Amino acid sequence: MRPRPAPPRVTIPPSMWPRPAPPRTVTPHYGKKKKKKKTGTARRRPPRKRVQPPVLKTIPQFLPNEVLVLVASDIPDAVGDELAASLRLTKVETVRVALLEGAIIRFRYPDNRPLRDVIALLASDPRVSRAQPNNYYHPVDKAKKNRRSRKPGPQYSLGKLSVGAAHEISKGRNITVAVIDTGIDATHPALSKAIAGSFDAVGDGGKSAGRHGTAIAGLIAGQGRVQGVAPLSRLLAVRAFAMNRQYNKPLTSGMILLRALDWSFANKARIFNMSFTGPYDPLVKQALEAAYEKGVILVAAAGNGGPKAAPAYPAAYNNVIAITALDSKDRLYPQANRGSYLTAAAPGVDMLVPSLKKGYRYSSGTSLAAAQISGLIALLLERNPDATSEAIVDTIKKSARDLGPKGYDTQFGAGLADAYASLKFLSDSQ
Predict the structure, then answer these.
(1) Which domain-ending residue is among 134, 164, 192?
(2) Would the CA dihedral through 224, 227, 233, 237 be positive or negative?
(3) Does 29 participate in catalysis according to the annotation?
């Protein structure tokens, strides 16, 4: 078979060669780059799972495995060591409390003995005047997280309490108020001239300024954007509360509170503002009774436990002025405690207060109402420094505007306090 001849070679002239593509011109991009539209079906990411915040533990009534013991002031210091050795306890500290005319010894026991058994053993010793748990206390307010602002709105409480008219007569000049609370931010513009002294009763070397104490101080003696009821009063910043990481809340103990009360009295505070609550506490009650007998006027928050809550202390002790909270329309704060121990009411809902880092925030609670009554009392004491606590209570009750059922009731007490009417009543009764 003959071989097939090769195909003829074809030569393409240069004129017929393919021309190269022209160079691409890139235009500089100075604006916002447009997003390309997605084509096709894009794969969607699965939705993120929400991480639930940890559930806060219920705060117990007292510190576990701790006992407080009161002994007379003439009892030797060695008694604490003897009690610890004989009852298998650890002596933590001893603090002399002038208001109790004795010393408080704090013991800790490492085993699982029932607290009541340990207290009974200590109480049976003739050298022990009293033995009890070391109780927890906590401030009472509720921040409004969605209403923070550095541009404060009007303070409706000033009009409700007739503060403007009252300031024509008194501004609480040189009246000393002990704010027993968290620390106070003394660098805040509203408080730069208000702090006369300070004391750290916690003694842990922790953060000195706290939101709650700063808010309370501003409502008593603030100047500028947040006007206090008694802007010329002098504050003692007594740090008794510190953040407890276990419960994520500022707390204090009966031991620390006794130290704070004693220091406040020794430094001549005329008014104790106590915007906190806790359980019935015989040692704290005894210290407050002693302060009252020596002329200190005691003001406390009624509590934020709600209408069915048990009485809150120290507000429910005799001789303590217990204050509940109202909103801008004179309605009772829904979380406020009720009870026959209430004295009167003041604004305490959606209150503009100073906060940390020179800021401001909104908050609610009977704590805030109590602070304003402490300021009102400072106004009265400037006009009559010798007024007794009984006279102050009588003045506030008889000059208050009645709310709710006619006359005194367990929701509003005597009604909405009025600073100007109180000053007029006190002046007329002299």
Answers:
(1) 134
(2) negative
(3) no
Q: What is the pTM of this model?
A: 0.85
Find all residues with CB under 8 Å of 30, minimum gap 6, and list them: none
Tell me, yes or no, whether 368 and 229 share the same domain: yes
Predicted confidence (pLDDT) at residue 220 exceeds the cutoff of 60: yes
CA distance 396 to 344: 8
Active site residue 181: yes
Q: Which residues contact 127 (CB under 8 A, 6 or more apart)?
A: 71, 72, 75, 79, 83
Catalytic residue among 212, 262, 264, 374: 212
**Unique residue bearing structure tokens 């009731």:** 409
- Residues 20-60: pLDDT tens digits? 666 565 555 555 555 555 555 556 666 665 555 454 568 89
Residue 49 domain-assigned (yes or no): no
Residue among 141, 181, 200, 262 flagged as catalytic: 181
The predicted model gives 344-352 an average pLDDT of 97
Specify whether 304 is located in the same domain as 320: yes
Active site residue 367: yes
- List 162, 170, 233, 367, catalytic entry: 367
